[in-house]
Amino acid sequence: MEELRKLLEIVTFCEQNDFTDFEFKESGKESTLITNIVAGKYQTDADAAQDLYDADQNDVRYKMLKHRLKKKLFKMLFFFDFTKTKLKGYFRDEQECKHFMHHAEVLIRQGEYQISKRLLNKALLISKRLEFTNLVVSILRSRMVIEVETGTFKDYLKTKEELDDWNLKLLNETEAQNLFYTVKLNLNKSVNARKQFLPLIPDMLLRLEELWNTTHTYVAFEMYYKVNLWFYELTGDFKQIITITDKTESWLQQGLINKFRFDLRYHKFIIVYAHLRAKLLEDGLKYAGLYKQDFDPNFPNWFSYMENYFLLAIHANQYEQAQQLISEVFNNTALQKIMKAARERWALYRAYLNFVHPTNFLGEAFKFNEFAAKVPDYSKDKQGFNVAILVLQFMYYLQKGDAEALLYRIESIKKYVLVHLKDSFSSRSRLFLKLLILTVVENFDAETCRLKGHKYYEKLITTPPPGDAYAEIEIIPYEHLWKLVLDILEKDEV
C-alpha cells in the first residue's frame, strides 16, 4: 500500500497526470483504488481488499489489481516533469538526453540510422554542455555502432578518438566518486569513528584535486569541493571554508566550473554557515539577509538556513532580529513537516531566546517554565544538545532561586563532565560547566564567583569551539551566558 501511495504522489509531477490518459477505468476498481488511497480511506492493503472484494489482501483479484495499477503508474514516470519540482534544473536536461538516447536505440534496432544519429547528436550537445560524462560515453558508443553499420570509416575513427578521451574522463570521475563515497560513508558513522577517519582525508583531498585538474569535469570538481568543505568543517577551520568559497566563486567566473551544474544555493548556505562558525557575525548577517530569498519557506532547507541566520543574530546580541526570525519559523505551517529532531532544536532555540530576552512576542502558546522544567536532562536522542539542555535547566532554577534543585543538578552535571567531556574537543563545555558548579559551591555569591571563576572565564575566551565532528552546540556563546549568570546572582543579592 505504501508503495502505491508514494507512486500516486510522484505521478502528480508528470506531464500527463490525468489517469484517463493511461486507460484507467473511471467506474472500475482501479479508479476506486486510486481515489480512496489519495483520500486516505485505505490505510492498508487489508482495508482496500475488504472494501473492493470483500476478501483479504492475499486475494488473487486484489493482487492482480495492484499489479495492473503499478504497471500503469510506472509507465507514467516516463513523463515526469522536473519543472514542477524544486529539483536541480539540469535534471530536466539529463532526462531529455535519456529520452533522445532511448528513442535512438529503438530506431537503431530498426535500422533507421539517419534519424537515430540526429537524435544522438542532439543528446550529445546537451550532455557536453552540462558535462554528463557517463551520457557522452554512452552516446558516442551508440554513434560508433551506426558508423560501423553504415561503413563511414572516417567518422568511426573520429568518434573512437573522442570516445577514448571521454572514457578516460569517466574513469577519473569514477575514482573521484569512489573517494567521495568512502568519505561520506565514514563521516556518517559515530563521532569516534569520524575522529579516527579524519587523518586519512588530506591524502584523499590531494588525489581528488589531482583528478579534477586532470579531468576538468564538473563531477570531479564537485567531489573535491564537497570533501574539502567537510574536512575543514569537521576540523573546525571555518575561515578556510570561507577561503574555499571565495576561490570557488573566482573559478566559476573564470569558467573553470560548469555554471549549469553548480549548486549556488548550497554554496550560499555554506557561506552563511561558515561565517557563523568563524564568528564573523557582522558579515554573516549581511550574507544571510542577502541570500534568504533564494530559499523557499515551504521546503526543509529553508528551516536549516534559518537556523544559521537565527544563530548569527543571537550570537551578535541582535535579539530583536532573532525574535523576528524565530517568529517567521513558528508562523510557517511547513514547520510541522520537517523532522522531529529539527522541530526540537527550534523549541530549544526558542527557550534560550525567551530566557535571555523575555518578551511576549511568542504569545501564550509558549510557556518557558513548563518547557525548561520538563525537558530531559540529557539523552542519546539529543546528542549535540545535551550540554545546552543541562545549561538551560541550571539557569532556569538559578533564576528561580531554587537552591535544592540546583544542588541536585550539580551532581548530574559533575557526572556528565566525568563521563562525557573527557576529550580536548569538549574543553569549552567542560569549562563552562565548571563555572556553573562554582556558583553553587560558593553559595551563589556574585563577587566570589567572579573572582574565582576568572581563570576559567579567561581560558574559555581563548578556547575556540570544536569542529562539527564533535557535535557540540552553543546556542548562545558561553561567554554571554556567564555574564548573564553573574547578573542573576547580583540581582538576587540586592
Which short descriptors sum up this protein?
single chain; mainly alpha; globular
How would you describe the overall organization of this protein?
It is a single chain. The chain is globular and about 95 Å long. It has 494 residues and is an all-alpha fold. It has helices spanning 2-10, 29-38, 45-53, 60-76, 90-109, 113-130, 133-150, 153-187, 191-197, 201-215, 218-234, 238-253, 264-277, 281-291, 300-315, 319-330, 340-356, 368-374, 386-400, 403-420, 427-441, 446-452, 454-462, 478-493. Among the domains are: 2-80, no CATH class; 89-151; 173-262, no CATH class; 378-387 and 396-494, no CATH class. The longest helix has 35 residues, at 153-187. The chain has 24 helices and no strands.
